[in-house]
Design goal:
Rossmann fold, 2 domains, 21% strand, alpha/beta, binds adenosine-5'-diphosphate
Length: 366
């Protein structure tokens, strides 16, 4: 292996997270004493990562050569086909890796009865917290009508399309796919059941997720078509139910957990959000109390096993501001009480015994 090639092996493709030398992205290399000329082949024309790859390539080659010249080109269709084959392994095109009996990815649906209870905020922060704990995490924003994950995670980049394969943008080490990437100008999504089913199915089959430890799914509120489709497409998923302490929220939240139970999903637990506001050391329960407990009790009765409360998250200005600014609070305000509670919940989730998806595993830690 030439020295230049070895230097290039240090350059990691930001979307595929593998050395460019393994991905067939390095073309012709010519060296002449202290000078090197390397050809780099991007997956597609206009690849959004082009600039950062070129910068990294120049920096890597500069470690061995005084004079560096880089030619950025694009793979041929045949080279692209070879790359896709390498990524996919022996799996067929349009393959849903999470529905396989041997899948080791834990798929977690985060649902709520109604909107506005903080489901997306919690999903995004839990995903990032799990990634901070060293896990490989994907986040599927299936809240088709109210998608907000790209904003919360500050993603403005579209997925890169390599023919039919989509490479998800990565934010805070979480791979993210959202319907928000595919609608222009904030247009409303007015799709009916079959189209919704096809869209969420493509998010599972056409996205290059790689090997994930966790796939978190931000469900639309309620118990509609998308939740049912996803339940069929991801039969091994378990769910987390988010509610506020208010009894009106709790009653509808229970229904969303119940639909999961009826389709055979285990419920990991309940998260109560906006539980209290702390002012001057005093905790004020602005939205009342008891919603989390009520949902946990009713779901325990339905499930016939203990459904715990995973945590209670304070009303937090830091959490809200962080989401509005596109950097989740577990990153931008880790000291905040809500961030700490979210991190604690992420650790509980990570502490669940790992097993083949589809098996119901109880937490046993609360
Ligand atoms: P949902 O996904 O349930 O519709 P969101 O996550 O979009 O809800 O949250 C709704 C709004 O409430 C957002 O503006 C979010 O920043 C804010 N929010 C969520 N949880 C909290 C909290 N614990 N404290 C303060 N604001 C919160």
């Amino acid at each position: 292996m030439s020295e230049a090639f070895e230097l290039l092996a240090q350059v990691i493709d930001p979307e595929l997270r593998a050395p460019i030398t393994d991905l067939g992205m390095v073309g012709d290399i010519q060296t002449n004493g202290q000078s090197v000329r390397a050809q780099i082949k991007l997956t597609i024309v206009g690849c959004p990562a082009a600039q950062s790859i070129e910068r990294d390539v120049r920096a890597a080659l500069a470690k061995g050569y005084a004079e560096v010249e880089v030619e950025m080109t694009t793979m041929t269709a045949a080279e692209r086909a070879e790359l896709k084959q390498k990524l996919r392994g022996d799996k067929p095109v349009r393959f849903n890796p999470f529905a396989q009996p041997g899948s080791l990815t834990q798929v977690i649906f985060v649902g709520s009865g109604k909107g506005g209870v903080g489901k997306s905020t919690i999903t995004a922060n839990l995903a990032v917290a799990l990634a901070q704990l060293g896990h490989k995490v994907g986040l599927l924003d299936a809240d088709i009508f109210g998608y907000s994950i790209p904003g919360i995670l500050g993603i403005s980049q579209q997925p890169t399309k390599v023919d039919e394969m989509m490479l998800p943008p990565i934010a805070h080490e979480v791979k993210v796919i959202s319907i928000g990437f595919f609608v222009s100008d904030n247009k409303p999504v007015a799709w009916r059941g079959p189209m919704l089913h096809r869209a969420v199915e493509q998010f599972l089959t056409d996205v290059y997720w790689g090997d994930l430890d966790y796939l978190l799914v931000d469900l639309p509120p309620g118990t509609g078509d998308v939740a049912i489709s996803l339940g069929q497409l991801l039969p091994g998923a378990s769910s987390i139910v988010v509610t506020t302490p208010q009894s009106s929220a709790a009653t509808v939240a229970e229904r969303s957990g119940a639909i999961g139970l009826s389709t055979g999903q285990g419920v990991i637990g309940v998260i109560e959000n906006m539980s209290y506001l702390e002012i001057g050391g005093e905790k004020r329960e602005l939205f009342g109390s008891g919603g989390g407990e009520a949902v946990a009790q009713r779901l325990s009765a339905l499930a016939g096993s203990d459904v715990p409360i995973l945590g209670k998250i304070a009303i937090s200005e830091d959490l809200r501001v962080a989401s509005d600014q596109g950097t989740p609070a577990v990153v931008s305000a880790p000291e905040d009480a809500a961030s700490q509670e979210l991190m604690r919940i992420a650790k509980l989730i990570a502490a669940r015994p790992r097993g083949l998806s589809g098996k119901k595993l109880s937490l046993g830690v609360i």
